[in-house]
Amino acid sequence: MISLGINYSQMHDSSACITRDGETLFAVAEERLSRVKHDARFPVRAIQACLDFAGVKATDLDFVCFGWQERGALFRHDLRCFAQGSPPFTFLNLVNSTRYLASVWRQQGGQIPFLRNFGVTRAQFRFVDHHLAHAISAYAFSGFDDAAVLVIDGRGAWEATSLWRGSGGRLEHVFTIPWPNSLGLLYAQFTQYLGFAPYSDEWKVMGLAPYGEPGVNLAGFVNPNDTPYRVNTKRLLGRDSAPTAGIEALLGPSRLPESEIGDRHKNVAYAIQDACEVAMFTLVRSAVEKTKSRNLCLAGGVALNSKANGKILASGMVDQLFVQPAAGDDGVCLGAALAPYLDGGGKLPVHRMRHAYLGPAASESEITRALETYKIRNTRLRDPAAATAELLAGGKIVGWYQGRMEFGPRALGSRSILADPRDPEMNARVNNAVKFREWWRPFAPSMLAEVASEYLETTPDSPFMIVTAQVRADKRDVIPSVTHVDGSARPQTVEQDVNPLYYRLIQEFGRRTGVPVVMNTSFNLRGEPIVCTPTDAIRTFYSSGLDALVLGDRLVEK
User: Fold this and answer.
1) Interacting residues of 27 by C-beta distance below 8 A, sequence separation 6+
2) pLDDT in tens, 412-443
3) Residues 12, 77, 130, 131: which is the catalytic one?
4) What CATH number is given to the structural domain containing 131?
5) What is residue 161's DSSP assignment?
6) Contact of 351 with 343, CB cutoff 8 Å
7) Residues 92-151: pLDDT tens digits?
8) In a domain, 436, yes or no
9) Residue 20, beta-bridge partner list
10) I want to staple 126 with a disulfide (CB 3.0 to 4.6 A). Which of 44, 65, 364, 555 is the partner?
């Protein structure tokens, strides 16, 4: 059985994946191929890449599965909210919502652009409830037989948060908290209030939060201790046309984008992060109680809040935590593609996901052709891992391009920028000269899995860099550039049999320095998607302060 999964909502992060007999062969977000950050267009490029990788045509597909409800569901819910006077449903917002829904309707949820671009297919078109697709994408890849599955995001059609119980390959719905009572909406509104882009820049707020202090009272906007949490959407959104007018009425004017960050902004970031963590704790306690399972799966955009994830795992409320690396909407395609397995009381193919290297790779000939096209002098490396370790130990910042691209927002050793974590100035160097981003943004350590306990107070299984842990007090001065201001880090634990080349690079760096840890951040410039092709990597290399580029076994230096 060949199933194509698609995320397409015309809002953000379109993507596609393809499975054969329950095995995910390939997955990619449209943005990586189109080079448009958070690309929301119909994922023609991503779908074609899936078909090409699997060696099939649209006529060979059995299912084409969209990770959203059928076209009428969203409209019916929005109309009901408007009739009840629920914010933000002013008449103008209803008109805008209707225009959006009319576009969805004309495209039949994505069937029309699929048929227009790929021709007639015998495949059955399926529309999977958005939160069910999220839940499948977490549970089916967790390896847990029994689990509590929490989906927390901005919104599906009518869902803001939902709880499912996974058992024996099946999912049972427990409860849904309807939109607009949404943690994702709450965090997004405060992200916008702080001068950042909602539904994309939330990690900027998360990174800024540790610089703040308690004192900002958000009780007017959310009661995170309620079971479930309760967001006061009328006060949050207000009745003004300005998107953050409700917050401004209580907390003062919004920060202008790119303006200075003051203490007030830091304290607001602290407050919203704290409220999110408290609400997530409340949800997790309820999830464990209702499902009787201490294995927890998280999905949805809020599940990318690595700080909250780390605190949940360290709290002892659960025994095991799994967060799928593409927990946001791009990862919905993974769940949608597997949904047909639940037909007729069937079971999902559940297995433990050990890596996220599901995207395209460049062949040696493609790398050579790109270098020759731009007449770039390069050196062939006999041992790329050892040579790169030597560069890092010498203080160089290196673009590392190897193998298949990662699926999800994190670079995990295939499309990464690497540096020495021992240098206390390296954080500022990479932020200022390479990434061109804000000074407070932290960087993550990639470390050998077997040494994690030497550097971290708790040792999470963290192959996807999606939970935080506290760095041991005696190691904070050893790896200062990957230790955040509050003593935390967002580690990637690297296993030899999962990514042997990257493992050996870190091992070689450890042999030279005594520290088997490297600084790892995504290979992209601010505002751009992670590089996909050798040409993307070359352009980014020459547009930034990178010192060296390792493309496969080729070294380029400035």
Assistant:
1) 5, 15, 16, 17, 18, 50, 326, 333, 334, 358, 359, 407
2) 999 999 999 999 999 999 988 888 888 888 89
3) 12
4) 3.30.420.40
5) E
6) no
7) 455 555 565 666 656 777 899 999 999 999 999 999 999 999 999 999 999 999 999 999
8) yes
9) 2, 23
10) 65
